[in-house]
Design goal:
Layout: H1 4-8, E1 22-23, E2 26-27, E3 29-30, H2 41-54, H3 64-83, E4 92-95, H4 98-108, E5 118-122, H5 131-140, E6 143-147, E7 149-150, E8 155-156, H6 161-164, E9 169-175, H7 187-196, E10 200-204, H8 216-219, E11 223-227, E12 238-242, H9 244-247, E13 260-263, E14 268-270, H10 284-300, H11 302-321, E15 326-329, E16 339-344, H12 349-357, E17 361-362, E18 364-366, H13 371-376, E19 382-386, H14 393-410
Parallel strand pairs: 3-17, 5-6, 5-9, 9-10, 10-11
Antiparallel strand pairs: 1-2, 4-12, 7-8, 11-12, 13-14, 15-16, 16-19, 18-19
Bound molecules: ligand C6P.
Length: 418
């Protein structure tokens, strides 16, 4: 058990230039992958080559560079479609990231929500899958309802789902994986209930797409949002997937170049999917980077990525659980992705993060952009380690040892080397 995962991606750290960096005299141990992931050389090289050799605007010029840039940008849509098993690249809208996708979607769906209607989210939302729906509900005088968290199991409590998703529900937007608890949400079960009452289902997949195989069709959702930078790709690009049959009937919410077919002084008509939702010069180099990130993940195999991170989180959970004065939030390892959020009494999470930094270990501390969830858990902050493809059991050992030492220092031990 102890040594299995080292074999799966044993030499992968070499493919990430940043991972050979030192923090002081320590090697970097990067455990903040839920915030953003590091980039493999193939992604860096693809973006560099794009700017060195092919840079031009897309869908405009008829010269060689413009054709190459257009091809590369369209190929990025096709690869993304294949990666999540979309019906076609017409369903793939490039955005700036998950936050942008969800904001766009809320605006796209705004006319389908009227006074007295209901929008359903859960109690474990990241702010990005809460505030856009709050805003929409307030603007339309609709109600925002919540699928509760069962604090004991760390899972969503679906026992009263029929009372929460009702004939008044127009939109259900839920996370695939919680960025705080790591909880994997049973999308299909919730989607089936939502579809029974005619609601559309949106999934915040920021924390699932980089870490497990996903198939939007078998999840039975209608919209699906994720970010390039959390899946070993660049910042500045994200994806909003939508079923073509729905996208065809929705109006764009951003207007200008690229998204139009014909323009007159008093009106305009829209381009084909997906371009009608991509106004202005799009993130072309970022699309090229995302393509390379998808190639990278596909080369590893998403089943293997999931197996590696599942094993690592179980290893970390068991080791942390064995510490004294530790609170771990969220479900048992088998129901979670590679995220582990905890408090190690008496060390405040911010102090812990800064002591770990002295060892070169990067974790996140705070409310993790999920303030209502922190309030629900009765905590003001927590520490979070989140794993990626390059993390190892030795890194977990170092993390746990360093936490132990921090606890001993804060319990009155000497302020020595952590
Ligand atoms: N969570 C974290 O450290 P953007 O920032 O748009 O790429 O992703 C937003 C977002 C939406 N949903 C979930 C579930 C997320 O985890 C995130 C980003 C990071 O947890 C940064 S706050």
């Amino acid at each position: 058990m102890t040594h299995v995962q080292q074999n799966s991606f044993s030499s992968i750290q070499k493919e990430f230039p940043i991972l050979s960096r030192k923090i002081g005299k320590h090697s970097l141990v990067y455990l903040d992958n839920a915030a953003t992931t590091q980039k493999p050389l193939t992604v860096l090289k693809a973006m560099d080559a794009y700017y060195r050799l092919h840079n031009a605007n897309v869908h405009r010029g008829i010269y060689r560079l413009a054709e190459e840039a257009t091809l590369a940008y369209e190929l990025a849509h096709q690869k993304t479609a294949d990666f999540i098993h979309a019906q076609s690249m017409r369903e793939i809208i490039f955005t700036r990231g998950t936050t942008d996708s969800l904001n766009m979607l809320a605006r796209m769906l705004s006319s389908s929500v009227e006074k007295g209607d209901e929008i359903v989210v859960s109690q474990i939302e990241h702010h990005s899958n809460l505030i856009p729906w709050q805003q929409l509900a307030n603007a339309q005088k609709a109600a925002l309802k919540f699928i509760p968290l069962d604090k004991k199991s760390g899972m969503l409590d679906l026992s009263r789902i029929d009372k929460i998703i009702t004939s008044k529900t127009k939109i259900v937007s839920i996370p695939h994986v919680s960025n705080v608890l790591g909880t994997i949400v049973p999308i299909k079960e919730i989607a089936r209930r939502a579809h029974k009452v005619g609601a559309v289902v949106s999934v915040d997949a920021a924390q699932s797409v980089p870490h497990m195989p996903v198939n939007v069709r078998s999840l039975e959702c209608d919209f699906f949002s994720f970010s390039g930078h959390k899946m070993y790709g660049p910042t500045g690009i994200g994806v909003l997937w939508g079923k073509e049959s729905l996208l065809n009937h929705l109006e764009p919410v951003s207007f200008g170049g690229e998204m139009v077919r014909e323009v007159y002084y008093d009106r305009a008509t829209w381009n084909d999917l997906p371009w009608k939702f991509e106004a202005g010069t799009p993130p072309i180099a970022e699309g090229v980077g995302l393509s390379a990130a998808i190639d990278f993940l596909q080369k590893q195999g998403m089943e293997k990525v999931r197996a590696h991170e599942k094993e690592l989180v179980k290893y970390a959970y068991d080791k942390l659980f064995a510490l004294k004065n530790i609170s771990i939030y969220g479900p048992e390892p088998k129901f979670r992705s590679g995220v582990i959020t905890f408090n190690a009494t008496p060390v405040h999470p911010h102090d812990l993060a800064s002591l770990l930094n002295e060892k070169g270990i990067a974790i996140r501390a705070g409310h993790h952009c999920a303030m209502p969830l922190a309030t629900l858990l009765n905590i003001s902050a927590s520490a979070r380690a989140s794993f990626g493809i390059y993390n190892t059991q030795q890194e977990v050992d170092l993390l746990v040892e360093s936490i132990k030492k921090a606890q001993s220092i804060f319990s009155g031990g000497k302020r020595a080397v952590v």
